[in-house]
Amino acid sequence: MGCNFGDLDGDGFLDFYLGTGWPAYEALMPNLVFRNRAGVDFSDVTTAAGLGHLQKGHAVVFADLDNDGDQDVFEQMGGFYSGDRFYDALYENPGFDNHYLTVILAGTRSNRSAIGARLRLVAGKGDESRSLYRHVNSGATFGGNPLRRFFGLGKAEIIERLEVFWPTTGKTQTFTDLPLDRTLRITEGREGYEPIVLERVSLGD
Asked: What distance in Å separates the CA atoms of residue 47 and residue 44, rounded to the nearest whole number?
């Protein structure tokens, strides 16, 4: 009924969540979450993560809703018929002590929301480097992620560079030596970046 992808453990490999079921009343089954195992394969971690909600799932959203550096999950729940309605579910991520970077893009010649922009981040640890790729869009079916792009960086020690490809001009901006564990705004065609401080919020209030 719905699916989306995000990085639950902040290791840079995208996991995915499935909202299961179909319109009939008897179509109840746990929603499912699969963890990306370093790009090799996926493991079903539904029970371990506590995300196996037994109700029909639709829109799935991965977002850092409390601004603490990891992605939480929101899912719209309930069936097709009025008697099959249910409350929506919000899952707060307990965190995995991994580094991250969040990037907000602002287009000038490209569209303001930078939809269609492509990002490549190179992170390093010791003598090893790794590239992470993101594309600015809303996410997957029956759901939408924030347009700000979240990079889980695992135990990376440095961000070597970030490349931003703008869809209208076809130009690429490159930024080096970016800070870890920050939110940055990048404006098309403007040198440098702007640090953004997001207020922490409590999801339990």
From this structure: 8
